[in-house]
Amino acid sequence: MPNIPDHFNLKARDFGDSFVWGVSTAAYQIEGAHDMHDKGPSIWDEFTSKKGNTYKDQHGKEACEFYHKYQEDILLMKKMNIKHFRFSLSWSRIMPKGTGSISTKGIEFYNEVINFCLKCGLTPWVTLYHWDLPHALEEKGGWTNRDILGWFEDYVTICAKSFGDRVKNWMVLNEPMVFTGAGYFLGVHAPGKKGLRNFLPSVHHAVLCQAAGGRILRNLVSNANIGTTFSCSQITPYRNNRRDHMAADRADAMLNRLFIEPSLGMGYPWETIPVLKQMQPYMVSGDAERSVFEFDFIGIQNYTREKVKHSFFVPYIMARIVKASRRKVKTTLMDWEVYPPSIYNMIKRFNGYPGVKKVIITENGAAFVDKIEEGIVYDKERLSYLQAYLKQVHKAQREGWKVDGYFVWTFTDNFEWAEGYYPRFGLVYVDFENQQRIVKSSGKWFSAFLAYKKIDL
Ligand code: NOJ
């Protein structure tokens, strides 16, 4: 068996006793059971039913069958010494039409998952919205319709009342920049809408929901630890000239500042991206205050860094990301540069906001080609990636920056949105023919790391 070059001397306890270690997942990516009991369709069920939207027209109808296999998966987490499990709730499983009637079966399913976690000694971390809007709501405009504020408040109220006695760690939204940008501007994710007139209202309504969700949880859940999560990447100018520097600033405002700053009372970064001022018609008096919420923690999700250059051809922002594959750097299967200092710089960056009380890495991980040989998945590249990023997290912590937890994306290989099942991000390999799980070398290493053990892989 090949030996893993082990220059990694850290142990989980080097991050402190209260540091939270976990794995992250999302409902549509793992659950399957897309129409089980009363579940209503979500925008991802709808989007994947149309030809050409995803890699090989793949979908999440079965995914990892977590709906049926949750006990097996949670037991495996337990066996792997994982103590914290982040998963999301499917809105249309709980409220099939998004508003009005509640599915008792849907509530029951999440009760079972939560109770089983607790029984196995795992702490549940729940995301309220990880991109799977009920399709019935999209038919009324989805995130572009300001009514979403009321729909979302009702949904959060039900979740808080149903699960808040046992779930204390909550995240309101997952990566709002991605679901508004990819879903309502570029049209490459569900619901496949495009253009500024869809994007701008969606952004503003997501910002309002982000804060409103926080307030509801605060009122209804005692001792809640309330956060929300942001995608973020270090942005570097491609060339060292003034135009690329300014392009990098604009890309940074769009990708890293757009959602956190209004929640901290700083407003939108209009001065850097003037076109965002066109959001004003969607705003009513009092919205600036309504956008603010004091989160207990900010979840940052980092995978890579981006290099950006000036471009006259990209409307509104005049900045273009230079693909990693064109830069001759080490990349993952997503064509994301492997650049561990990005996570360190993002931790520092979010610490720089005086209103940020705590930072937790709620996602980090990598997709590579995984091969099974004699029943073993030796995923050396993922293992090195995780170790290299963790070293940077530790460096930030040692320098005194707040960072209180780390969740690997993800537990099992799963449905990677428009990329289908091709990119595998899991610590655990899934054979999608028979739903068999095989712990990869990275998973074995992570589990030994958590138990402060050294292992031979
Ligand atoms: C971000 C998203 O939250 C998650 O759903 C996705 O699978 C991973 N990053 C990897 O792209």
TrEMBL record:
Catalytic activity: Hydrolysis of terminal, non-reducing beta-D-glucosyl residues with release of beta-D-glucose
GO MF term set: beta-galactosidase activity
Record keywords, A-Z: Carbohydrate metabolism, Cellulose degradation, Glycosidase, Hydrolase, Polysaccharide degradation
Enzyme Commission (EC) number: 3.2.1.21
Domain of life: Bacteria
Enzyme class, spelled out: hydrolase
Entry-linked Gene3D superfamilies: Glycosidases
Catalytic residues (UniProt): 363 (nucleophile)
Pfam families (alphabetical): Glyco_hydro_1
Coiled-coil boundaries: none
Annotated family: Belongs to the glycosyl hydrolase 1 family.
Alphabetical list of NCBIfam families matching this protein: BGL
The protein's name in its UniProt record: Beta-glucosidase
Biological source species: Arenibacter arenosicollis
